[in-house]
Amino acid sequence: VIKVADYVVWTPLIIFFFVSYALSLKDTIRLRQTFDHREAYILQEKEKGVKEFILFDKFEPQRTFIFTQKVYDIPHLEDNLWEDAYAKYYGIQSVEIRKASEK
């Protein structure tokens, strides 16, 4: 009886873990691709002399009926702390990251 109860409890939890892991991994890969594309674009345009960027590729985590992924893009804070650090890292004046729908 105890072994059956263990299987009834642990099997769904293990399945849930692997599904959530796979979805999180998928979002992490998408975020990495977003950053890679963004970096290539900034470096390419920087060579042309562009120093201010508005990017319309803000990453949105996948939402499922069970949970929302905890993988996030550079957040927009009131004082643009993260964007300023990102711009400083690439040696440009400014970068602003917006959703594609804000184009």
Structure description:
- With 103 residues, this protein is mainly alpha-helical.
- It is 54% helix and 8% strand.
- The chain has 2 helices and 2 strands.
- The protein has helices at 2-47, 81-90, and strands at 52-55, 94-97.
- Strands 1-2 form a two-stranded parallel ribbon.
- The mean pLDDT is 87.
Lay out the secondary structure:
Elements: H1 2-47, E1 52-55, H2 81-90, E2 94-97
Parallel strand pairs: 1-2
Observed structural traits:
103 residues; mainly alpha; two-stranded parallel ribbon; 2 helices; elongated
Quaternary organization: single chain
Into which percentage range does the β-strand content fall? Answer: 5-15%
Low-confidence spans: none
Chain-averaged pLDDT:
87
How many runs of DSSP E, i.e. beta strands? Answer: 2
Distance between the termini: 60 Å
Output the helix-strand order: HEHE
Rounded to an integer in angstroms, the radius of gyration calculated over CA atoms is 20 Å
Structural class: mainly alpha
Looking at the structure, what is the overall shape?
Answer: elongated
> What's the arrangement of strands in the largest beta sheet?
1-2
**Biggest β-sheet, characterized?**
2 strands, parallel
Binned, the helix content reads: 40-55%
Number of separate helices: 2
